[in-house]
Amino acid sequence: MNDQPSVRVRGAKRADMESLVAFSLAMAWETERRRLDEARLRQGILAVLSNPHRGLFLIAEVREPSRRHIVGQLMVTFEWSDWRNGVFWWVQSVYVAPAWRRRGIYRALYQYVLGKAKSDPTVCGIRLYVARRNRIAQTVYRRVGLVKTNYIVYEQDFVLDSVPS
After folding, report:
1. Which pLDDT belongs to residue 1?
2. Which residues contact 16 (CB under 8 A, 6 or more apart)?
3. pTM for the model
4. What are the tens digits of pLDDT across the range 15-39?
């Protein structure tokens, strides 16, 4: 493998379901030590793939000698901002397979999102949240041009807080 693989970013399809599920399960465990309900996760991914108003999944692929190989994913969801009269794109469910990290995969995904967002006049910005302890991800996000905000996220989770770890 060379250091900077040729990465192709594309919209995910239903045929990518197994990769999306596997990556999301791995991401939840790696970042929060959470075991997700796989059936619920599968339904949640399908809900996005079936309804573009909910969001979109992107896939990062690299070409290996005999085939294309999925190495990363990212989901975008939407938040209306009355202050800006526009939509923020929220980057979520980011995962890059461990063997492909530090090789430009996330950067390729983010540059794709950034290009699409900037070309849409209804989009006013891009946001994401990251676990406080995930220093590696925070460094990656700063390197692509994202900045820390003054906001702290609060939540009341009706689903994951009831799932045993």
Report:
1. 47
2. 57, 59, 70
3. 0.88
4. 999 999 999 999 999 988 999 999 9
Position 85 in a domain: yes
Within the chain, which residues score under 50 in pLDDT? Answer: 1
User: Considering its fold, how many domains does the chain have in total?
Assistant: 1
Residue written as token pair 């995969």? 105
49 in Cβ contact with 13 (< 8 Å): yes
In CATH, what number is assigned to the domain containing residue 111?
3.40.630.30
Six-digit token pair at 23?
């990556």
